[in-house]
Design brief:
The protein has 433 residues and is of the alpha+beta class. The chain has 2 domains: 255 residues, Bira Bifunctional Protein, Domain 2 (BirA Bifunctional Protein, domain 2, 2-Layer Sandwich); 93 residues, Rossmann fold (3-Layer(aba) Sandwich). Helices cover 31% and strands 28% of the residues. Strand 4 and strand 5 form a beta hairpin. The chain binds adenosine-5'-triphosphate (ATP). The site of adenosine-5'-triphosphate (ATP) has 15 residues, from strand 10, strand 13, strand 16 and helix 9.
């Protein structure tokens, strides 16, 4: 990694803390490894990313329903899914410096990447967090924090299908927390132990799965333009035989070029009928689907699209971050920008603050907006650039004469005047998700 790239990450991390995007969890106690808290700007950015995904999956289509399943599930779910047995990573320790690595991420023949020391034999380590339900801590009461949201969708497939009177093909979308006891968390919020996933499982008839796989692969990469991600920063990576998860017939990752290199941000998987078939076997419930057109009964195939909210938030930040001569600017797509607009009175007198506050009050019902009357106007613009606010409106002496305000656009810094009555409409046209 070059020094300059490391620097970009360092600068991003420091901006995130300074401007209230992301803090280390329990910071006053020295933090807890790989857990993070989202501050006032981070929580808005996160919500907007989730809304954009939900809107494009659920609202804008007529073949996908939403779901919010619980984090704790019956422990048999994780036996059926294969996670108890197979959700493991190979762990090696350096005998000399004691550092820990994932054996599949390093060249173990070269010894420890840190100090060259001898490594232990790989041990398989299960990534699921275990805990106990109820007051008795024995094996009968073990439950797991879900390592993926997908299983909540599979076990509810027939509930959702029946209550929404669906025929195949249709999908179920869910956003929720997932937990993985990662061996080597890191790169800020790229790999965390507690994170949020956005997953959509699309149920199709066997035989149509390959076509739907191609469809979702294309749909998903296209979606990133709505998030404002530059297309040259995205690419596909196809899983080879030895990379495929135990349930997958075919898998592609969408990768983004982070300052620390190309890495996965989303997986598109053909999970075949593996999960539903296993749930049928373990639950002994009939999970067959009756196809009213062909009159056949079968277990549907599943095409999964799975991405992480936190990882997309980091993607969005890394993609948006730019240093110019006189300013640092986050060029977020307006739809996900935490603050949609800022309104300033040029000076704190002559009734300008009242006019500006009036404008803000008219916008608050629809958007997160910011009112700022402190400091020089140039500094106020810079502060908004740093949190990626796409539009700033300034009330000045001309406003008092003709009712127009200045709009200053973040990316070009160009300014124009519009009527103060048009501010809401102006924003509606540009920043709505
Ligand atoms: P890896 O091989 O890097 O551990 P994975 O292939 O197991 O990842 P998936 O199970 O496909 O990851 O997870 C789907 C998505 O969930 C990922 O593309 C990523 O966006 C997100 N995700 C997975 N693990 C984490 C994590 N530890 N922290 C943050 N996001 C994660």
């Amino acid at each position: 990694m070059t020094e300059q790239l490391t620097n970009t990450m360092d600068k991003l991390v420091s901006l995130c803390k300074r401007r209230g995007f992301i803090y280390q969890s329990s910071e006053i106690y020295g933090g807890i490894n790989s857990c993070y808290d989202y501050g006032p700007m981070g929580v808005e950015l996160k919500k907007n990313i989730k809304n954009l995904w939900w809107k494009s999956m659920v609202y804008e289509r007529d073949d996908i329903e939403g779901l919010d399943a619980s984090i704790l599930m019956h422990p048999r779910v994780w036996e059926a899914s294969g996670h108890v047995e197979g959700f493991t990573d190979p762990l090696v320790d350096c005998k000399k410096c004691k550092q820990r690595f994932r054996a599949d991420q390093i060249d173990t023949t070269q010894g420890c990447p840190n100090c060259g020391g001898e490594l232990t034999e790989p041990r398989m380590f299960n990534l699921m967090f275990k805990t106990f339900m109820g007051p008795v801590e024995d094996d009968a009461n073990i439950v797991y924090l879900r390592p993926e949201t997908a299983q909540g969708i599979y076990v509810n497939f027939h509930n959702v299908r029946e209550s929404s009177r669906r025929k195949l093909p249709f999908g179920i979308a869910q956003i929720g927390k997932a937990f993985r006891n990662e061996i080597t968390p890191g790169n800020f919020i790229f790999r965390m132990r507690e994170f949020e996933q956005m997953e959509m499982q699309y149920f199709v008839s066997p035989g149509s799965d390959e076509e739907w796989f191609e469809y979702w692969k294309e749909e998903r990469i296209k979606w990133y333009s709505r998030l404002g991600i530059r297309s040259e920063k995205l690419r596909f990576h196809q899983h080879q035989e030895d990379e495929l998860a135990h349930y997958a017939k075919k898998a592609f990752d969408i990768e983004f070029e982070f300052p620390f290199g190309w890495n996965e941000i989303e997986g598109i998987h053909n999970r075949t009928d593996y999960d539903l078939r296993r749930h049928q076997e373990y639950s002994r419930k009939n999970l067959l689907y009756f196809d009213p057109e062909t009159k056949e009964r079968y277990i549907p195939y599943v095409i999964e699209t799975s991405t992480g909210v936190d990882r997309l938030l980091l993607t969005t930040l890394a993609n948006a971050y730019e240093e110019e001569e006189e300013r640092v600017v986050l060029r977020f797509a307006p739809a996900v920008a935490p603050m949609k607009a800022a309104v300033f009175p040029l000076v704190k007198k002559d009734g300008m603050p009242e006019v500006a506050r009036n404008i803000v009050n008219g916008l608050r019902k629809y958007f997160r907006v910011f009112y700022d009357e402190s400091g020089a106007i140039g500094r106020r613009y810079r502060r908004q650039d740093e949190i990626g606010t796409p539009y700033c409106f300034t009330v000045d002496s001309q406003t008092l004469e003709d009712g127009t305000v200045t709009v200053r656009e973040r990316d070009t810094m160009a300014q124009e005047r519009i009527s103060q009555d048009r501010v809401l409409e102006y924003l509606m046209e540009r920043v709505l998700i």
